[in-house]
Amino acid sequence: MQTGARLPRGTARQLEGWMALTDEAINRIKNMITSGELRPGDRLPKEADLADRLGLSRNSLREAVRALSLIHVLDVRQGDGTYVTSLEPQLLLETMSFVVDFHRDDSIRQFLEIRHILEPAATELAARRMTDAQLDALGAILAELPDDPSVDELVANDLRFHREIAVGAGNPSLASLLESLSAPTVRARVWRGLTQEGAVQRTREQHAAIHAAMVGRNPDVARAWATVHVAGVEDWLHQTLSEPRATAG
Predict the structure, then answer these.
(1) How many of the other CB atoms lie within 10 Å of CB of 23?
(2) Residues 220, 133 contacting (CB under 8 angstroms)
(3) 2: buried, middle or exposed (CB in 10 Å: 19+, 13-18, 0-12)?
(4) DSSP state of 53
(5) Is the dihedral angle over the CA atoms 190, 194, 196, 202 positive or is it negative?
(6) Cα(177)–Cα(33) distance, rounded to whole angstroms?
(7) How is residue 43 annotated by DSSP?
(8) Deepest of 58, 178, 179, 183, by most Cβ within 10 A of its Cβ?
């Protein structure tokens, strides 16, 4: 089939009908879970029994189960059956990492805007909730960075530092969201480290300031420094993407 060619009208209608039946099957299973009829860890009835019970074809049910397993709602165990997963936030939000990997360069700004909102809030919560031992471990991460780090070493250290803070905030959903947003913004941080003078030193200083505020149990200051930290990358990226592109000859 040629690129951009349209499907025959009859085939297109059949495909739409099949997708509608699959969507219906997905919604039926979803309703069983949200109503409490199926709970985390429960095994689904046998395919034939569930299809009859829901008034669906086995093909539609099979496709629905496949779709729900891809987003970690269901766990298909060969030879054992299909089970509802734990439905823990960190498990369900793993799918977001896959989706955001399809970002375009200019859409990184949108992810950074979300980080601008969430990361300072997570840092404030962590400053209130992390134990002294956790804060010591956070400081140890910063101490591991060499005096003259490469950009790759800096970014890896940066990821570990912010991941520990997100976990220390005590909100698994928030931590999972921030983890999902880290992948697309890593590229922006690498670009910044490669092109912006003084970025490495500023990053180290800002990390140290965030940690010091947390150790001092000053959540407002920790939040302010986290805001400055994310805004630095955000502002640099905005300027970079706003620059006129060079034209040939």
Answers:
(1) 14
(2) no
(3) exposed
(4) H
(5) positive
(6) 23
(7) B
(8) 178
**pTM of the predicted protein model:** 0.68
User: How far apart (Å, rounded) are the C-alpha atoms in residues 117 and 177?
Assistant: 12
CA separation, residue 105 to residues 22, 101, 188, 192, 237 (Å): 34, 11, 9, 13, 10
Q: How many CB atoms lie within 10 A of CB 199?
A: 19
Q: d(Cα 44, Cα 38) in Å, to the nearest integer? A: 8
Residue 79 is given by DSSP the state: T
- 229-242 residue pLDDT tens: 998 888 887 777 67
For residue 182, what pLDDT is reported? 79
Q: How far apart are CA 118 and CA 177, in angstroms?
A: 9
Q: Please determine, for residue 7, whether its predicted confidence score (pLDDT) is greater than 60.
A: no
- Residue 115 CA, chain-centre distance (Å), reads 11
Tell me: the pLDDT tens digits for 200-247?
A: 889 999 999 999 999 999 999 999 999 999 988 888 877 776 765 444
Local structure of 75: helix, strand or coil:
strand
Q: Is-contact 139 241, C-beta < 8 A?
A: no
Q: Which two tokens stand for residue 190?
A: 């690498």
Of 235, 240, 231, 229, the residue nearest 106 (C-alpha): 240
Alpha-carbon torsion (198, 201, 207, 213), positive or negative: negative
DSSP string, 187-210: HHHHHHHHHSTTHHHHHHHHHHHH
Q: Could you tell me if 201 and 220 are in contact, meaning their C-beta atoms sit under 8 angstroms apart?
A: no
Helix 172-195 and helix 108-129: axis angle, to 10°? 120
Q: Which two tokens stand for residue 160?
A: 């570990």
The torsion angles phi and psi of 82, rounded to 5 degrees, stand at: -115, 130
What CA–CA distance (Å, rounded) separates 120 from 228?
9
